[in-house]
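Q: Entry one of two.
A:
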Amino acid sequence: MIGVKPRYDGLAEWYDEVMRDPGDRGLLARSAYETLADLLGTGRGAALDIGCGTGLAAERVRMLGYEPYGIDLSLDQLGVASRRLQAVQGDAARLPVASRRVPLAYSTFVSSDLDEFDAAVSEAYRVLRPGGRYVSVCVHPCLNGGHSQVSDDGTVVVRPGYASSGYQSGFEFGSTIRSHVGAWHRPLAEIINTFLAAGFGLVRLVETGPATLPSLLGISVVKPWTPSGPQVRGEAGR
């Protein structure tokens, strides 16, 4: 919520440097933006970056033909993002956007930051036009999360607790960024089912990343032309 200090405030410039570093974290970021481009495809018109952070995806999205604009909770992140795209402060769970106005939306590395994931997914559904798409690229919950430990040979050991959702504080992580801000862990089934429960139709699911085992999960969903399920009730009151 806007009244709560975002976890990335005070870290924006540092975060931006880490994400652009040519080392391991930079490799993961570049792979994520390549996956985003693959799932978005080329096109025209506006594209809403939900949780835009410092706007690092904007250049790649423009190369595809779209004009990105962003929303993020952190004013510090937005100060950096303003160099790359137009963006405003807002909560992903309460988007300051009218219903059925957005033709295309996307997010990168956001699902593990969202306290109210189901509300954020429902909001993405609400603001999209019928037939509009939402693309999310996030860390793979099975192979790149708080319950996953990567060995020197590239194998991944998943520790007990994977099946339970919850926020994990920074001290539970050895990674550069998550050790500062922590992360939400949600099992793969919960993530996919949240999109389906909101009313989305699944278009494509990809597992990818710079390593041998997939460290990224890409999800492409569409808002049907004819709403169905719980979203019919959800939009009736708006």
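Q: Entry two of two.
A:
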Amino acid sequence: MNEEHLSKLWKMMDLHFKSHPWHGISYGEDVPDEVTVFVEVVPTDTVKYEIDKETGYMKVDRPQKYSNYLPALYGFIPQTYCWESVAELVRVKTGRQDIVGDGDPLDICILTERNISHGNLLVKAIPIGGFRMLDKGEADDKIIAILKNDEVYQHWRDIQLVPETLISRLKHYFLTYKDMPGQSKQRCEITHVYGREEAHSVIRRSIDDYRKKFGDVQGNLRQAFTDAVGL
């Protein structure tokens, strides 16, 4: 089998097999100015969904504990990972040396005036800022973005332009969505709200962390396939 035949067979595999949302989809060619996002949850969901890391299928994480809702699409940036490089930035910014990464892909909220009724889909988004969130000592940043070409919000190019009431809604959701009724101490805290440039830095670091953890997944898969067919 020559290289031309291998390329044709590789393309056929792409057509017949679904890519893993975390490992098999690119974050986009214009990262960090523009990113591809896999959406797991939309504002109307009363259940929190997330991907199963092993299979890539969507699963139920938990019912929402309260009646408040997230006024944004919510998901993650593929081929990102929050570990040592992300945690290092958080340690520098907070002065707390006990912080580690949460070991998940980088979370992202996407603001849009459009009513998107379900998750499990891909969208393009423009990062404009983020929340530096800690979940029991783990770095759990939430990037804030605008849906690409959104007719109403597309002029918001930095989080400073977003109305404070909307920022407060987002913060309230993340500060309470994991707490149990009657719990006296919040599990999560937001130490900083940061702008576009710092969001870009977090995204770059999460890509570095992914590469350190998983390597070149697509390249390794292609090499393994090449070896298997004996080319």
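A: Comment on entry two: Helices lie at 3-16, 84-94, 164-176, 196-214, 217-229. DSSP finds five helices and ten strands in the chain.
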